[in-house]
Amino acid sequence: MNETAAVAHATHESPGFVRTYLFSTDHKMIAKQFLWLGLIMMLLGGLLALMVRWELAWPETQLPLMNLISEKTWEALNESGSWIARMIPNGFISPESYNSLFTMHATIMVFLVVMPILVGTFGNFLIPLQIGAPDMAFPVLNMLSFWTTALGGLVMLAGFFVPGGHAAGGWTAYAPLSAQAIYTGVNWGQHLWLISLFILGVGSLMGSINYITTVINMRARGMTWFRMPLTIWSLFITAVLLLFALPVLQAAAVLLLFDRTLGTSFYLPAGGGEPLLWQHLFWFFGHPEVYVLILPAMGIVCDILPVFSRKPIFGYKAMAVAMISIAFLGFIVWGHHMFISGMNPSLAVGFSITTILISVPAALITMNWIATLFRASIRFTTPMLFALGVVSMFIIGGLSGIFLGLAPTDIFLHDTYFVVAHFHYIVFGFSILGIFAGIYFWFPKMFGRKLNETLGKIHFLATFITFNLVFFPMHMLGIGGHMRRIYNPLQYPFLEPLQPMNVFITVSAFLLGASQILFMINFFWGLAGKKTWEQNPWEANTLEWTAAPPRPPHGNFLTPPIVHHGPYVYSLPGSTQDWAPQNEELPGKLARAAAG
Amino acid sequence: MTSLLKDQPPRAAPAQPLPGAPPPPGRRPGWGDDEGGPRRDDSPMPGMATAQLGMLMFLAAEGMLFAGFIGAFLVFRFGNASWPPPMQPRLPVAVTGVNTAILLLSGYTMIRALRAAARRKPAQLRASIIATALLGILFLAVQGYEWVRLVSFGLTMASGIYGATFYTLIGTHGLHVVGAVTWLLIISLLLARSRFRPARRLPLELCGMYWFFVVGVWPLLYVLVYLH
User: Which residue of B has its CA nearest to A13?
Assistant: First the structure.
């Protein structure tokens, strides 16, 4: 290395604070940026959910702690027309703000928590590391992807502060409810919601283009398609789903914004428009989006189970094919969200059939997970516990989905709390538990230190138990006729006997929220503690654990890795070590066993 | 696209090889400034250069955006008993037919530009790029003129679902043409300043892909929107 190169090298290693932490093009830093974004938003989304729960348990009562604020202060707030007084006048939740609360809880959780963490964080962090690439294919585009998402998040948050409050048409924003301000009383809130969704879509598309290109073109030598970890398969399929689904949502959002601002009537029947068009376009995006929210968690679980079972994943290729078929079928099932919308009932038959078909690959994946665990000597670490939580919650959430996928039962259950129970078993029981599994598992690689195992296990137990206490009774509420979106359940006498259950759910929800304090303590403790940069703390095979810790001056690997076998070679008969990293060449006989 | 790449001389290895790394195999030349960036030649199956692949994915997303708008348009076109709805101005079928030919011609000049770049003919390259850009501008001018006339006849975004779908769909395409023409003008500016080495054809090829998309979508829109 000559002198100039050495100087260039030295300056390259310390690009300064802004280039290192803000406008970094390093995929690992961008992953962390997405993680912070998602975790902060999770706090906000969770608080909104707790406010919704408070209203349902003790309708039209003052929120806790609000009695600490004097009446004089409230009067002053009301007079100044501040956003706090609009959202919680005198510390109470108004019917209008209730609509905003559940709308924004869902929007934030879907677009600013689960997507940034599952797709943004794990996609960015794991794709280059697990396929043995030095970085993403387009590092600058990657940086732009994060900052576009952050901008979309800011626009979304701005909606809370504009006159009229935030969007209140539900996260599905059904037209004409969302198409004219007179219905919800929200004008700028809904505008900003649509603009933000468009921007977030652009950010996600940048990520998707990057992920797909990186997986196709940047794999290390020997990393064939069927030697890729299932996390990479799942993230690749997720990126394809986003690429084909998001632009349709963006088109739909543009049309809705035109209806609201330019006087068109795409979704307004009075002007010759078609309200069902929004539902079709929205759910054409919305159902693949459901798989966007769970597929990466599915991949993460597929990677965690073998590590702690010390066994190969059962049916590796079947898993990849099942994920592909879920993604494909995901595009032709959107009508099952619309059984009672007034669309042609004969279409419901077709959509029911395609929906039930999805349970074939879904059941296959679950059974393969169980077969992976079968007769294994399991190491019950925190990530493993969360992964096992995902497996079991997927069974409940999947089974309740069958009732909603079939038109005859869905017509009864539609828009009841049964639906709320079902999709929370999926997005919380699957996606969020999957996120926790992933964070506990890759924290040592991300931040150089294991999270505290004891605290992690207590966090798991507390979360798992309270989660079920919150969401399982919702099935019963729903069958009892409790509406999905209702300001005061006590207005109907037939719901009064169910009210104790609502109170129970809310108390459990506050406990669930409080359990997350354990995670926050563990997370910050982990960040603050001494870094050990242990190379392979879980004795796993995938390439990220072979990369030099903390990291080489450029890229991820000191030497470009060469991959010799698949990622799930555990407990190979005849081998002295019960794992075999993908870049480790096995002696001939063992190599044949690993390949077979 | 790949055939255009073959005669390209391999570029020098990345300025900063990883310490201890073997020299890159050089199966596929790296693109752009590789300083500190990823090596783009370590794929086990280099079917297509990374930048082109990324562009292709971008165009797939663009295609889905148009699919969304076209889907909405078809709902109204086939959902209404009479289309165009009565009392609405008729669209300029003949003029737009000529305009279609203009845009298709620009697709041909773009092919010529790419060919000229591959054969290292800078003069022909420059002429073809400028011709493509001018044809694109002509297309936009004719569209703009027709839009002004249609608005004066009373066809606007707010005049009904016919106008709304028309301006949304055709306007989205128009915006794409504006973007593509801007890109072409930047390239011709670079060519005029001779800062565009023929050996580095990548931006040109990406622009070509985008242009072909914009040209390729148009006949579909013409048939669906203008011809009844």
Answer: B36
